[in-house]
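#data-curation
PF: Archiving a pair of folding outputs for the training set. Convention for this channel: one message per protein, sequence first, structure tokens after, nothing in between. First:
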Amino acid sequence: MELPFLLVGSVFLGGFLGFLLDRWLHTKPYLMLIVGGLGFYAGVREVIRRAGDDAKRKAKNPQP
């Protein structure tokens, strides 16, 4: 249930940090796009990792 929130949250966090950096360094909108993209990449990686861990745990302990 937490996986969609993890993905969306990482994109928003990356985009927000990029937005703040853009305002500070006057580079609009480049850093927001780059850091938001990195947040998306990190979110997808984390979702895949957690889904794989869950599948391994279910394979190890099958429920009748």
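PF: Second:
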Amino acid sequence: MLIDPQLLRSFVFVADLGSVSRAAERVHLTQSAVSAQIKRLEAQLGCPVFARTTRSLRLTAQGEALLGYARGILTLNDQAVLRLGAARRMREKVRIGCSEGLPAEWLFAALTRFREKYPEVELEVTGGISTTLSELTRRRALDISVGGRCGGSSAGELLWSEPLVWAFSERSLLNPVQPLPLAFLCEPCPYRDAALVALATHQRSWRIVLTAQNSGALLNAVAAGFAVTPLTPSSMAAGLRAIPTGNIVPELPRAEFTMQLREGRLGDAATELASDIRHACHRWLGSH
């Protein structure tokens, strides 16, 4: 025997609300229709589920036992409908690249809002060095990438720019006699390239003491006073300071942050997400 889920749903509402009329309002049926459903349910089960008087309605022992099963059946039914329905509606995947060193809290806030608004759209985020992400976008392996650059490529839409500075631990002092200890992300890194070009015409000797795979290791080394690295002011973590340019370190170019879209027609979801990212960035810039 299979029990109609609609009968179970009406039964649960009547049990929870203690009233057929109030249950009828919740399931958008007439009171007589809900009463008829309860009678059908009792006929299928061969036992009463409610004990009725002129002034009250309460569950029978059989009704109490059924209530737990009914809740479980309806929960599983709703989960199955939601899961399979979402899979059926999943029409688009949007692939986003987010570069190392990007102050990205505003970006992930925008992605979270978009996912809540369109749960049927799959978002796939890839982190990495901006040069690599730009190439992946050019090759159409990513739909959208947001990252930094220092001159060179003109690909993408400029979101904002800011100075590139030399960052070091605020609790440490550089030894003026020793070569400048440098830390960079692994190649290809636009900040690394810009720093090495600037150092090529500077009188201070230097050496690379750390090549990091991610910005977390890089920032830890700089905060500990182990090395100096080029950063933007917006990505300076607590405990770091900018070294004044001059005899110790040369001046660096400005860093530009861009959003690059893959060539060809973007889907509706990717187009709207790009607009959301643009607006979120403008709001973040306004708050800073």
